[in-house]
Amino acid sequence: MYKAIIVDDEDLVRQGLKKHFDWSAHDIEIVADHSDGQKAFQFVKDNHIDLVLTDVLMPYMDGITLAKNLRELYPDIKIIFISGHDDVIYLKKALKVEAVDYILKSIDLDELDETVSRVVNIMNSEKQSKKNLADMENLLNQSFPLLQERFFITMIRDDFENPVIMKERIAFLNIPLNDEMYYCVLVVQIQRVYSTFHVLSERERQLLSLRIQNECTEVGKQYSDTICFENKQGEYVMILSLSEDEYEETLLEVSENLNKRLKGGMELPVSIGISGRFKGLENIKTSYENASNAISKRYLLDDALAISVDKYEMDESLKEYKENAEKSLQECLSSGNTEQVSKVLEELFTVIRENFQHDEEQNLMIFLLLLPTRIVTDIKINKKSDYSNQRRILDRFLCCGDFEEQCILIQKLYFEVAALMSSMSKTYSHTIINQVRKTIEERFKEQISISTLAKDVYLTPTYLCVLFKQVTGTTINDYLTLTRLEKAKKLLSDPYIKLYDVCYEVGYLSPSYFSRLFKKYTGISPSEYRNIAIASSEQ
């Protein structure tokens, strides 16, 4: 109930208001009455009060002065003046102290009832607003970890925004980053992501990911202030603060302990990339990219040598060349086309020989040497293959006398993988397509693209489209649409789910587009389908 007091120098008025008006009907309790403003002011200072009904003219402290004093200390208190004076001067003074109403004596109980009802409505509205604000504050506090993680991901993926806005957001989210400290970025990538995560249920995946993130955080905090977050499945990013000197050994210890914890304690082989030391928040994105590149351009990819340090910036042309080479080779290897493999390799060897210095040349050659490992691992080939022992391949490569011998070795190994793929092309194609189907089934609510699906199976988007149509007889987009519409039909059978909620639940952002698409594929609108489904269930 709301707490109220009555202040009037006439005892008859005070007692009459208490006895002859039903305060409880308005959820109000009269907790005290006073004969002057001074006593009332002291009472309010000692007790919580929501509403004050006060006379204007009183001894010691009049009603106007009482209202001013209350407004200064307790701005939420509501004040109703009750006075026998209808002088305009008093009315103006009452308005100046923001009294919610002004009632003249003798008091009309109907007028008082109307006035109190209006004041209670105001207090209820303000009370609800405060509750809503408190709920929003509570929700915001609960969402802080999610907001922080989103901000971290933005920092490494997007270009550096306005420095003032960036610092304001960092301060608001209570993130321990600034422009004065030195930092380093570590990228921790789980090897064999698909076989590690996709055999688990969603709950198990989330728990495993959380455990990995906690392990990374615990290791980092043993050495310095550490921020750790998951950038994507199987990749965790750490930002460590560094002292100005002798930080290299610290980073090596952090990386070795991470490798020990994850590989030894959790049986998760990892690759760890380390950026150079940097200062300035605008350099976080570049440092993340350098740490990621350090993994992709390391010389030895053996599990025992999982730590890679970014020692130099990769030339953009080299980076682009490696990406293009990977797409071409993955495609012709997957198809088992040895003639195409030979042609692509010859072109690559010529370009590498003529355009790159020795270090970059060897970097690219080892990159080519180990590229088929991903295919052999992901499709779980049971036949005996040289790629079943990565260390042996590296040993054979290191025993080559010159660049030409390296070319011959790589070509021989590629022919072996291509022949293997050719012998089992049908099985491999179905493995790839089944993986794509599974991804669509699990992620149909998301805005997934063909490029995303192709990247997951290490193929070009064009090749995946051709392969999918060849195996299934339908396009990827049609398959995704049909999957979504089948899910929509199940939801439409429930009359309590709104049509626009069905639209959002199956991955469409526009209800009108969803309705048009549904009618195009089914011949009827979603609402018509719902009526038919409900009628069928009632029979």
TrEMBL record:
Residues 434-532 form the HTH araC/xylS-type domain. SUPFAM superfamilies: CheY-like, Homeodomain-like. Residues 3-120 form the Response regulatory domain. PANTHER family: ARAC-FAMILY TRANSCRIPTIONAL REGULATOR (PTHR43280), HTH-TYPE TRANSCRIPTIONAL ACTIVATOR RHAS (PTHR43280:SF28). May play the central regulatory role in sporulation. It may be an element of the effector pathway responsible for the activation of sporulation genes in response to nutritional stress. Spo0A may act in concert with spo0H (a sigma factor) to control the expression of some genes that are critical to the sporulation process. The modification 4-aspartylphosphate is found at residue 55. GO terms for biological process: phosphorelay signal transduction system. This is Stage 0 sporulation protein A homolog. The lineage of its organism: Bacteria, Bacillati, Bacillota, Clostridia, Eubacteriales. One of its GO terms (molecular function) is DNA-binding transcription factor activity. InterPro entries: CdaR_GGDEF, CheY-like_superfamily, Homeodomain-like_sf, HTH_AraC, HTH_AraC-typ_CS, Sig_transdc_resp-reg_receiver, Tscrpt_reg_AraC-type_HTH. Transmembrane segments: none annotated. Keywords: DNA-binding, Phosphoprotein, Transcription, Transcription regulation.
